[in-house]
Amino acid sequence: MEAHCVAKYIRVTPRKMRLVANLVRGKNVNEAINILKFTPRSASQPTLKCIQSAVANYAQLHEATSSEVDALLVKKIFADEGPTMHRFMPRAQGRATPIKKRMSHLTVIVAPPAVEAAETETGHEETADAKPAKKSAAKKSPAKAAAKKSASGAKKTARKSKPE
Fold it and tell me: What is the pLDDT of residues 81-100, one digit of tens each?
């Protein structure tokens, strides 16, 4: 039970958009909206509109009450790179330097907090127990490690002593 919104061709660079997206990731939607209203960055207005649209999408799709909408979290938010407009600036002595005007695509996914808990219980995400254990260096005997070191040291000295 989640809803999303995708805003495309936003005239803000993805790098600047990600700075604003990191401010609201994982927060309650009301808290995220308040943060964005008082953030003095150009990327905050398109991000605010996208979050509000995702909340409206959730309310429409799930026929949610206002208390359910207030409990929503910004589950995922990310900014991908869009197309780049190439322009040129005239310079001295007949030269021209390129200017890249970048765009971004913003994706926001909102979900109630119960959805995140259900995913971890069902095991969709990897846990630390599921990962294979790495071989440790403690299994090697100290004698073998010392012999290997001395053998590699002897090879290095042999290389240095050869006349060129």
Answer: 999 999 999 999 999 999 99
Cα distance between residue 164 and residue 148, in whole Å: 27
Can you give the residue ranges of every domain in the chain? 3-127
How many Cα atoms occupy the beta-carbon half-sphere of 44 within 13 Å?
12
Q: State if pTM tops 0.70.
A: no
Strands 3-10 and 73-90: unpaired
**What is the model's pLDDT at position 14?**
96
Q: Nearest CA to 2 among 48, 52, 67, 62? A: 62
Question: What pLDDT does 59 receive?
Answer: 93
Helix (H), strand (E) at residue 118: helix 113-122
Choices 3.30.470.10, 3.90.470.10, 2.40.50.430, 3.20.20.70: CATH for 3-127: 3.90.470.10
**Strand residues in the chain grouped as ranges (E):** 3-10, 73-90, 96-111
